[in-house]
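Supplementary Text 2. Reproducibility record for the structural model of the 561-residue chain.

All settings were left at their defaults, and a single model was retained for analysis rather than an ensemble. We include the record here because the model underlies the residue-level annotations in Supplementary Table 4.
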Amino acid sequence: MISNRTVTIVLALCIITYLLGMVMIPLMDIDASQYASISREMLVNKSYLQVFDLGADYLDKPPMLFWLSALSMKIFGVHDWAYRLPSFFFALLAVCATYRLALLFYKKEIAQLSAMVLAASQALFLITHDVRCDTMLMGWVALSLWQMAAWYQTNKWKHFLLGFIAVACGMMTKGPIALMVPAFAFVPHFILRREWKQLFRWEYILGVLVIAIMLIPMSIGLYEQFDQHPGKLINGVPIQSGLRFYYWTQSFGRYTGENHFNEMNYFTFLLENMLWSFLPWIIFFLIGLAFSAKDLISKKFRLANNEEWITTGGFIVTYCILARSQAQLPHYIFVVFPLAAIVTAKFLYRLLFTEELIKWKKPLFVFHAIVFTLLWLAAIILMAWPFDAPKFVPVITCLCFAFYLAILFNFPISQFQNSKTPTLLTLSFFTVIGVNIFMNTAFYPNVLKYQLGNDAAKFISDNHINKDKISLYGIGEGRALHFYAQHIFPRRESVQDFQSSDLVLTAKDSIPVFAQTFPGLKVIHEGNHFGVTALSLPFLNPATREKELPKYVIIDLGTKR
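Retained model, structure tokens:
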């Protein structure tokens, strides 16, 4: 069995990897830097009920992320790691709540595996530095599922209140999905256990009241910002009611057609993205999901009192609902990764700690050994080839790969010979944590050097340039510029709007346009303007990178013709 020491080491290494990403990787455009900029703007303006993005009305996401990130920056200062800090704690909450939820129904070893699987999934390593609402949402939803399950088992009011408070906070993080996931998880569970009374308990009325009370501050802000001023344009669409938009259009409008977004709307999109976001566990999960469905069929769709369908049913129903949306993004499915982690842990326990699935062990070991080897080879290439990393970085990567091979081929390493942890688990944790440590410390920081926002903000701050003199023209700058410069730079639409005393941040191609009116202009800074979330092989190749890099400039206009 897995020792407590192993669990502690794995979780500690995951936390260290999260922290390295938080402090070493600049914010990426678009979403993470936008939310950080909104949080900073909320802090500066002290506008906590009405949300603004560069001074414009903002309605896309509820305010919980902005509230907590603004509070963190008020305490620690305006830093990217301070913006990320609340979401980091919610990632830890999701891991803890997953463990406690699994422990309500399964033995301790499965609960420990559940926590480690979630903590060491690629999604967690990503969303603790590329922070969006989903990190916080995952924590609230996992907490609500754990507390509600505990309430159903014990009838203790503290679990009831915490469960519904978590639902309300989740709704203030990313909308009604925080209420829908518990319903999707528990309703099939009750039906399969024939617990019909659980579907009609009077306490639900009180729970709805708790949610309604918790939502009052946010609802007041929506009403004051939009309902009292109907017709405001959001993404070019007039909004008559902020309350209706939030409680209906933003979520359910994706199915009725009222929501104007329409992207990635085919059924397998989320599953395809889980192939990377739930690494290294995705194959174990899919097989475990199939086994859970098979077991349910063999039991003629009836569960005993000591069995649960919260995890499998909650994942399946939520996936089917999300996959029917007319607008999907890869991180939408992250909300049910705690449930996927428990399904995975159940299968891993049967595979590695019992003799039930002995025929599956060798094929799965060989398959994952090939996948993990490819991941390590990719890591070595990324450390040695695209960027001028210190020579010791690829050397250390190669040493880690050698250590991985030693574990794989069971070379005499006493630490692992004496370990009770199955080799396949050791390889999984060592690979996903090791590769992400290198990515967080040596790859992403180098890639982000080519992002306009943090590069331009650093130049402006280092040279003590008057930010009030700088305006933007003809360039999509992202929000990292405004966040790192701690200033909202205005945009001007015509060259004639500028004066000779102005500074302009614009695309390099715009220099001739300004030179016609300002012949004395001077380029005081030139930098790269690459969308780092759209990595390509030509960009990674040092020989072809320069051709892939648009340039931006900061111009001192000097004299006007």
